[in-house]
Amino acid sequence: MTEPSLPSPSGAASPLLFTPLKLRSLELPNRVVVSPMCTYSATDGVANEFHLVHLGQYALGGAGLILAEATAVSPEGRISPEDLGLWDDRQIVPLGHITDFVHRHGGRIGVQLAHAGRKASTYAPWRGKGAVPPEAGGWQVIGPDEQRFHDLFPTPLMMGAGELRGVVDAFAAAARRAQVAGFDAVEIHAAHGYLLHQFLSPLANARTDDYGGSFENRTRLLLEVVRAVRHVWPDHLPLFVRLSATDWAEGGWDVDQTVQLGHLLKYEGVDVLDISSGGLTTAQQIEVGPGYQVPFAAAVSRAETEIAVMTVGMIETGAQAEAVLQSGDADLIALGRPFLRDPHWTQRAARELGLRPALPEQYARAGW
């Protein structure tokens, strides 16, 4: 079992990064979160040994919370044919093997529920570009309207009342399966240009009915999904929502709308806002640099939404993560690529910040 990092011999107070955080009944031993990262390695949405090893290593490395990759709530909601899924009961047990392993080694694990919308039925990055044709396992995609993300991407069918209701029901059903599989948290993916983000942004939503036009209408589907998931997800477990705070494009979704939505999500029982950005349009102009998305999280934090805020994006070191927390810009630090480079990032950050990290019993002889 991996325990929280131990205090330094001097007895100094733990850095904020290694201060526990309680979200409903779930207590995280530290503020380090493994961000959901697609691995495009499933068959028919079913997890396998790769996912067990990939996610299990982060529990051995001491991360406070592991978020499993975007997991489709329906077959047509997959980004690629190789995405994980929770649309079928047969997908529960393989994910349960993973949550059991994480829990046996002192970890906490959540799952990100997602629907790709018009960005579905596309190749995994190393397998090709653009739309997967039917003969290679592709399918008809859906979206708020008939706009494509890119010329190489599929043309979506505009969703009608039945498809809208179906998406809400699919998220709720997937959340029920996530509970049976033993996950400690659920995150609803409403960022990076996927279906729920498509409805939020005027750049991807040209509807003229109750789901398009005004802020109230564009946020309607997400709020319906959140409400349905919160209704079936246990009251004692936390619910996350990932948002792209800005489209990085004129006339798109922006920080002010994100803050406004954050206030609404508080009243729907959301516990954490996972603040990212971009992914909706090829016209985006992203200003990349160390911690480049932290100001968006800070804007939400300072707006007093009364929801915990998580930030992500080019946060590389323990000192950098600690500075974000000390400034009050966020409550949790999510990392993606740094964990791909070093699954034991959490333990290394603890040592960097003056703590004596605890190691799994099997690794203790290695020392630090």
Can you tell me about this structure?
The chain is of the alpha/beta class and 368 residues long. The strands form three sheets. Strands 3-4-6-9-10-11-12-13 form an eight-stranded parallel beta barrel, surrounded by six helices. It has a two-stranded antiparallel ribbon with strand order 1-2. The chain has eleven helices and 13 strands. The protein has one domain (16-366): TIM Barrel (Alpha-Beta Barrel). The mean pLDDT is 95. It has helices at 49-60, 92-104, 161-180, 195-200, 215-218, 220-232, 255-266, 294-302, 318-326, 337-341, 345-352, and strands spanning 21-23, 26-28, 32-34, 65-72, 84-85, 109-114, 142-143, 157-158, 185-190, 239-244, 272-276, 308-312, 332-335.
Quick synopsis:
The protein contains eleven helices and 13 strands. The chain has 368 residues and is an alpha/beta fold.
